[in-house]
Amino acid sequence: MFCSVEGKEVRVYEAYLSAAPTPSKAASWIPSAHVQPWRTGGHSSAPGEGSPKARALGCLVLPKGRRLTARQFEEVYQRGAVYSGRLLVLRLLPHEGASRWGFAVGKKLARRSPDRAKWRRRLRAVVRNMTDTRVDGVITMRKAGLRATVPQLRVEVELLLSRRASGSD
User: Fold this and answer.
1) 7 to 11, 12, 41: CA distances (angstroms)
2) Strands 100-104 and 135-141
3) Which tens digit of pLDDT belongs to each residue from 62-83?
4) Which domains does the chain possess?
5) pTM of this prediction exceeds 0.85
C-alpha cells in the first residue's frame, strides 16, 4: 500500500491487531491449596527431595554459629595474626566462645567455581572437629595446597595453631 507524504509516495506496511483481550481458556489448570487439600501452599520442600548423596552433604556444612559472617571475615583478614605455612596461610583473631571459620581459595589457584568450592569443602573438613581453639580464623589456600590431601592439610593447620599457642611466628 502506498501513501502520499509531503508529495512523495511512501510504502506503508499495516497489520490489523485487535485491542480486545484474548478469551481465557475455560479448562486452564493452576495448582493451588484449595484445589488439592493436601498442599499447604507453603514453599517447603519435600523431605526426600534431592539425591541421597546431596542430602548426605548436609553433614559437611559447618553449623551457622561456626561460620564467619562477611563483616567478621573482613575483620579477621585485616586485624588477625598471620601464620604462613607451605600449604596454607592462617589468619587468627582471639574470640570468646566456639571457634568460627572462613575459607578463601583464589581464582588464580582454581579458575572454575566448582573447583574452588571443592577446596573450600576440604578445608571445612579439616576444621570441623576443632572446637577448642577459641579463635576466629580465615584459612587461605596456597598453590602447593592444591596437591595436598585432607590429612596433610589437617597436619598443617594443627602445626600453625601450635605455632600460635607457642607464641612464635
Assistant:
1) 13, 15, 65
2) parallel
3) 778 888 888 998 999 899 899 9
4) 66-166 (3.30.230.10)
5) no
